[in-house]
Design brief:
Helix content is 27%, strand content 22%. It is of the alpha/beta class. Strand 2 (46-50) and strand 3 form a beta hairpin. The model has no long low-confidence stretch (mean pLDDT 86). The structure holds zinc ion. Zinc ion (ZN) binds next to helix 3.
Length: 187
């Protein structure tokens, strides 16, 4: 009897792991966004549908630029569920490994460009670069986003990083093996 229970609990544990993995993956795959998690910004192409399928065009977005001195300010939205432990660990890793800096805005009115962290919408996503005309949303859904790696990933988008394999100049540096691209995915 106990052996059976033990076996079931192992199976259940593996199932939970599997489901958790899926939630984490899916949270980064928002269909309407370039790369699954970039809502707009510096280097994010506009996607339009033509008769031949979706077409990408890189249109410079002058409302976004890089953060002054590599310093990004953030604030939790009033509706957000805070997770200071994961956020602090993510920021610590960015500080340890890069020259980029992430600081709380603490309501300072003089800081007009800042990241506003929300947790109520689906998925994990960000704008790319610093919005020059006010705050910008960065969503980290309570479901599937609060992992140190995911928070770092979205903060780096906010800093201005694109996915390396989706950079407009990537073909100068790498060869995409199209046979390995999932059907229906924009390469
Ligand atoms: Zn991303």
């Amino acid at each position: 009897m106990f052996r059976m229970l033990g076996m079931y609990s192992v199976v259940f544990f593996l199932l939970v792991l599997q489901i958790r993995g899926d939630i984490r993956q899916e949270a980064l795959q928002n269909n309407s966004m370039f790369g699954g998690d970039m809502a707009g910004g510096i280097s994010v192409p506009e996607i339009t549908n033509s008769a031949d399928g979706p077409v990408m065009a890189f249109v410079p977005n002058t409302n976004y630029k890089l953060w002054t001195g590599g310093v990004l300010y953030y604030e939790y939205d009033a509706t957000a569920t805070r997770n200071d432990q994961v956020l602090s660990a993510a920021i610590q890793e960015i500080h340890d490994k890069t020259c980029l800096r992430v600081y709380p805005r603490n309501g300072q009115a003089s800081i007009t460009s800042y990241v506003r962290i929300t947790t109520t919408e689906p998925g994990c996503w960000s704008y790319v670069g610093m919005k020059t005309t006010g705050s910008q949303q960065l969503n980290l859904s309570v479901s599937g986003c609060w992992y140190v790696g995911t928070v770092i990933h979205e903060l780096l988008h906010a800093f201005g990083f694109n996915h390396e394999h989706q950079r407009y100049d990537r073909n100068t540096y790498v060869t995409i093996q199209e046979a390995n691209v999932e059907a229906g995915a924009l390469s």
